[in-house]
Amino acid sequence: MSTEELAAELATAEKDFEAATDFGKVGDTAGARSAFERFLESHDGSNGKGNLHPRHHLLLNAHASLINCCFRLNDLAIAAKHSRIVAEGMSSVMDVWPETADFWFRCGEMEEIASRAVLEGVVQECGATLETAMEAYEKCWKIRRIIYGDDYLKTLKVKEEVDRLASETA
Predict the structure, then answer these.
(1) Which of 68, 116, 126, 153 could form a cystine bridge with 77, CB 3.0-4.6 A?
(2) What superkingdom heads the lineage (predicted)?
């Protein structure tokens, strides 16, 4: 791919991302979800159809937006899937970073909510379990301990989540 072709692809991706974001700005959550899913289908290089690297910021931001869209639309399994993609993607780019810890915390929340919905029969099995939620919370806790220390409020909050889930899964 030439530099010009790559620049054109990036310009198209930025335009498509902005268009998807516009749906959310006007409160059309279902439209935003569809637009972000189309964006990923068209631009994610890992599916063989797009040219952006799977860790490109536009792709990670699209997945992050899909967490919120899917959660608002009660598609908890897909929200949990996108939260894990973002957390893993951020970890591969910036492992010990406040935002990475925040994405792992969000991933823990989504995994926990989805796993409880499965247990209650609200949604079908989706791979989210209390154990995977606890793993995500533990990753967040590890990062926050390094960044903030053991006594920082955000560190203490995630430690409470780890302890709570550990007692439930024991």
Answers:
(1) 126
(2) Eukaryota
